[in-house]
Design goal:
Elements: E1 3-7, E2 10-12, E3 18-25, E4 34-39, E5 46-51, E6 57-59, E7 67-72, E8 77-82, E9 91-97, E10 108-112
Parallel strand pairs: 2-10
Antiparallel strand pairs: 1-3, 3-8, 4-5, 4-9, 5-6, 7-8, 9-10
C-alpha cells in the first residue's frame, strides 16, 4: 500500500527557511525518481524539484538557488530544504514519484508571510 507522509511545513517570514520531509512506503522508493510538488490557492499543482535514484536533481526556475532536494534511500525519506522563502512560495507541498505519480498524500502547508 502506497503511503506518502509530508511534514515540516509552517508559517515563516519572508527570507526564512524550512525543511520539509516525506516518509514514503509502498512505492519502491530506492529505485524511483521522486519529486516535490506544490499547489497554491487557485493554481494548478506544479513540480518544484525532482531527484533521481542516483541523485541527479532538477529544479523549477522559480526555486533554483533557494531550494535543495535530497533523499535518504536507507530511510525511504525525501527532503526539501527551502531557504530565502518568498510570499509566492506559499502553497501546500506534496511529495510523489515522478511520472507516473502515485496516490497523493495530505501534503504540508507552507505559508510565507510577514
Amino acid at each position: 500500500q502506497v503511503q506518502l507522509v509530508e511534514s515540516g511545513g509552517g508559517l515563516v517570514q519572508p527570507g526564512g527557511s524550512l525543511r520539509l520531509s516525506c516518509a514514503a512506503s509502498g512505492i519502491g522508493f530506492r529505485i524511483v525518481s521522486m519529486g516535490w510538488y506544490r499547489q497554491a490557492p487557485g493554481k494548478q499543482r506544479e513540480v518544484v524539484a525532482t531527484i533521481r535514484a542516483v541523485g541527479t536533481t532538477t529544479y523549477a526556475d522559480s526555486v533554483k538557488g533557494r531550494f535543495t532536494i535530497s533523499r535518504n534511500n536507507a530511510k525511504n525519506t525525501l527532503y526539501l530544504q527551502m531557504n530565502s522563502l518568498k510570499t509566492e512560495d506559499t502553497a501546500v507541498y506534496y511529495c510523489n514519484k515522478v511520472s507516473p505519480v502515485d496516490t497523493w498524500g495530505q501534503g504540508t502547508q507552507v505559508t510565507v508571510s510577514s
